[in-house]
Specification:
Blueprint lengths: L1 H44 L3 H13 L4 H17 L3 H14 L5 H15 L3 H13 L6 H20 L3 H14 L6 H64 L1 H5 L5 H11 L18 H22 L3
Length: about 325
């Protein structure tokens, strides 16, 4: 009987030590969780995000229930996003969705995942997720209002990055019109000003391109006109030379009185028809006046030369 009592006492002692150790372990885990969350919050508030993520991770590993675990990994993800560790953040988002699908933090993760996609350049995927987040929330409180306004703003940013400026402007205008107290208000207004400026720049560029093309066409017209005048002048000079040679010819001198009619016919032969003399060119403002004046003067000089030689008969 004594031995039986000793055995019972030993079993009781072992059970007591086990329960005491278990309580101590739980208290220690709860202490580590609380300390990790507290230190992580302090570090996060002073922008020491990498260290904050480590503290939140300690809290996550020592969480003894699903809610504490979800809260801890949520702040781990926010810290990772703050120092741009997007790969780790996405992995932890997947882990949160897998282990705690009913957590309220999963709804916010849609917004943060969309931000990650935007930062990685996947604008279309980000646009879909921002829209999904907006459809899953309402303007029920100040935080929800600011977050929805931010989602509309980032949808505009996605479209802006894809150069869909008109569509982006509508989302920015939605933020300005519906959420005037949002922190994104000034950023949205600034983007609208940029879009208007881009539209003006595009119109000016198109006008400049059109003006340049017109200038090239006008320049080509100048060159063709100048070549026409120069060609006509060469014809004049050649015919004048032939006319002078004909006048100085002994045959013409000997038969000047008897063949006056033939000389007149010869002059008429060398006369350039009036319709072949280019008319003066009228040009638009900012055109090359010197070039046109040169061509015009060539035509006048030729006509004066012809009149001079024709007046000698």
């Amino acid at each position: 009987m004594w031995r039986c009592r000793r055995l019972n006492l030993l079993v009781f002692s072992i059970l007591f030590l086990f329960l005491t150790g278990n309580v101590t372990a739980q208290e220690n885990a709860q202490f580590l969780y609380s300390r990790g969350m507290r230190n992580g919050s302090l570090l996060y508030n002073i922008s020491r995000f990498h260290e904050a993520a480590m503290e939140f991770r300690i809290a996550q590993e020592n969480a003894d229930n699903s809610n504490d675990w979800s809260r801890a990994i949520y702040w781990v993800i926010l810290s990772q996003l703050a120092y741009s560790d997007y790969g780790s953040a996405l992995n932890d988002m997947d882990e949160l969705q897998r282990r705690a699908p009913s957590s309220t933090h999963n709804r916010d993760m849609v917004f943060h995942r969309a931000r990650v996609y935007y930062n990685q350049g996947f604008f279309e995927d980000a646009l879909v997720l921002f829209n999904r987040y907006i459809n899953s929330t309402s303007d029920s409180d100040r935080e929800s209002i600011d977050r929805r306004a931010a989602a509309f703003f980032w949808m505009g940013e996605c479209l802006y990055s894809m150069s869909h400026f008109d569509d982006a402007e509508r989302f920015y205008a939605w933020v300005i019109g519906r959420y005037p107290d949002s922190p994104r208000y000034e950023a949205a207004a600034y983007r609208i000003d940029l879009i208007k400026q881009k539209k003006i720049e595009a119109e000016l560029l198109a006008l400049l391109q059109w003006s340049h093309e017109e200038s090239l066409r006008t320049s080509e017209d100048y060159q063709r006109t100048l070549r026409t005048y120069e060609h006509t002048l060469n014809v004049y000079q050649r015919r004048i030379a032939e006319l002078i040679n004909s006048i100085n010819s002994p045959e013409v001198n000997n038969n000047n009185e008897t063949n006056e009619s033939d000389s007149i016919s010869r002059i008429e032969y060398f006369r350039v028809p009036e319709e072949n003399i280019p008319a003066p060119l009228f040009v638009q403002q900012n055109q090359n006046e010197n070039l046109i004046e040169r061509a015009r003067q060539l035509g006048f000089n030729v006509q004066e030369i012809l009149k001079e030689y024709e007046g000698g008969f």
